[in-house]
C-alpha cells in the first residue's frame, strides 16, 4: 500500500536499520519504544492485522514468532520477551499493517 509506513520501510524508502529478515518478514526498532527493548516484526505482505495475516499468509505468522525469538536472544540478557499484537484501534493498533511488538525490560549489555 502506497501510504503505509511499514510498506515504505520494507521497500527501503527511509533507510531504517533492518535487524532481521526472513522470506516473509522484516524486523526493526520501534521509533517510540515503550520498554528498553522494543522491536517490531512485520510481514512483507501488507495485511491489516494479525487476524488477516493468519488467514492470508500463515507462514509469515510462524516466521514472526521465529524471528522474534532470534531477536530476543540477540537483544536481551536471557532471551525473555513479550510478544504483542494489537488488533484494532480499540486495542491500541495505530499502524494498520500487521506487526508484532517484541518487548523486554532487560536489554543485553554492550
Summarize the structure.
This protein is α+β, with helices and mostly antiparallel strands and 110 residues long. It has helices spanning 5-10, 50-56, 58-75, and strands at 20-21, 25-29, 37-43, 82-84, 100-104.
Would you tell me the structural class of the helices and strands?
alpha+beta
Rounded to the nearest angstrom, the distance between the terminal CA atoms is 37 Å
Integer count of domains: 1
Q: What's the β-strand tally?
A: 5
**What is the CATH superfamily classification?**
HIT-like
What's the CATH architecture name?
A: 2-Layer Sandwich
Biggest sheet statistics: 5 strands, antiparallel
Please report which band the strand proportion falls in: under 5%, 5-15%, 15-25%, 25-35%, 35-45% or over 45%. Answer: 15-25%
Q: Which percent bin holds the helix content? A: 25-40%
Q: Based on CA inertia axes, which overall geometry fits?
A: globular
Unreliable residue runs: none
Query: How are the strands of the largest sheet arranged?
Result: 1-2-3-5-4
Tally of separate helices: 3
- CATH fold node name: HIT family, subunit A
Rg, rounded, reads: 13 Å
| CATH C-level category | Alpha Beta
Can you describe what's shown?
It is a single chain. Helix content is 28%, strand content 20%. It has 110 residues and is of the alpha+beta class. The chain has a single domain (5-104), classed as HIT family, subunit A (2-Layer Sandwich). Strands 1-2-3-5-4 form a five-stranded antiparallel sheet, covered by helices on one side. A hairpin with a 3-residue loop joins β1 (20-21) and β2. α2 crosses α3 (58-75). The longest helix has 18 residues, at 58-75. The mean pLDDT is 96.
Amino acid at each position: 500500500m502506497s501510504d503505509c509506513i511499514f510498506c515504505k520501510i520494507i521497500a527501503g524508502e527511509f533507510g531504517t536499520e533492518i535487524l532481521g529478515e526472513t522470506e516473509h518478514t522484516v524486523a526493526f526498532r520501534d521509533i517510540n519504544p515503550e520498554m528498553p527493548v522494543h522491536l517490531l516484526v512485520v510481514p512483507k505482505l501488507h495485511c491489516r492485522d494479525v487476524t488477516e495475516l493468519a488467514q492470508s499468509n500463515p507462514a509469515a505468522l510462524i516466521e514472526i514468532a521465529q524471528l522474534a525469538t532470534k531477536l530476543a536472544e540477540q537483544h536481551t540478557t536471557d532471551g525473555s520477551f513479550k510478544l504483542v499484537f494489537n488488533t484494532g484501534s480499540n486495542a491500541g493498533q495505530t499502524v494498520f499493517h500487521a506487526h508484532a511488538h517484541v518487548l523486554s525490560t532487560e536489554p543485553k549489555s554492550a
